[in-house]
Write a structure and sequence with these properties.
alpha+beta; globular; 8 strands
């Protein structure tokens, strides 16, 4: 017995019905008018990120799972400290377990330099299941208008240095436009939930990002506190709606 699937028409992702289903099942926030730039490798990602740090004038909100105390990590720290010295509000969320090998002196240097640092879910060892509740985001929002995100942590193996077998090949993107506002809101909600206080940056001084391009972007907020995987739902819907091809990079 042979089964065949009817080929879906092209452009299904742009239909209102599909967009509504994705927003409903994946709790996605949709926006139009964005400009998106792809960085295929870590070597493409970090130079413009550090340049954006140097250009920041209001705020930097950074959130990473792993931050290494190596050349890339030190360049990251120095760029944040330099921004803080210029009067930029700089806030950093790092995962406690993801950065377990990073010395506390690294984060003390950041705090002494004016960077507000917040560890995500410091474990209470009486409740070991908390060890599974981790923050795997890799997101930076600058001045509320530009966002860098993707699968790259902060470390030499992610930055594409050398030919070590430990080197990782990950991708990143830069977004300008209305979608950045939702990423900024997600950072602030995480900060408030983890610290119990409002975010320290100055949102009133940031203007809402306007249209920058013609890209539609959906932001899926996959936190470890969700009772179901909205990211998995987004993957399944996207694959179910494919009409020509599915490419998976993992």
């Amino acid at each position: 017995m042979q089964f065949s699937r009817r080929k879906r028409r092209k452009g299904i992702f742009r239909t209102l019905r599909f967009s509504a289903r994705l927003r409903r099942n994946a709790e996605a926030v949709h926006s139009k008018g964005n400009r998106v730039v792809l960085f295929p490798n870590g070597g493409d990602f970090f130079p413009p990120l550090f340049q954006a740090f140097r250009s920041a004038v209001i705020s930097i909100c950074a959130e990473f799972y792993i931050i290494k105390n190596d050349d890339t990590g030190n360049a990251f720290a120095e760029a944040l400290i330099d921004a803080a010295h210029r009067g930029v509000d700089v806030s950093l969320i790092y995962d406690y377990i993801g950065c377990i090998d990073t010395p506390s002196s690294y984060f003390k240097r950041l705090e002494d330099g004016g960077v507000r640092c917040l560890p995500f879910n410091r474990p209470a060892f009486k409740r070991l299941h908390w060890l599974d509740i981790r923050d795997h985001r890799k997101v930076v929002v600058i001045d509320g208008k530009t966002a860098f995100l993707g699968s790259l942590n902060v470390g030499d193996e992610y930055a594409g240095y050398g030919e070590s077998p430990e080197r990782w090949r990950d991708v990143g993107i830069c977004i300008n436009g209305p979608a950045v506002g939702e990423l900024r809101n997600l950072f602030r909600r995480t900060w408030e939930k983890e610290s119990g206080r409002s975010t320290p940056d100055r949102p009133d001084h940031e203007s809402s990002p306007g249209d920058e391009g013609d890209a539609d972007v959906m932001i899926v907020n996959g936190t470890p506190h969700h009772t179901r995987s909205v990211i998995r739902s987004a993957f399944r819907l996207a694959m179910a709606g494919a009409s020509e091809s599915i490419r998976i990079i993992t």
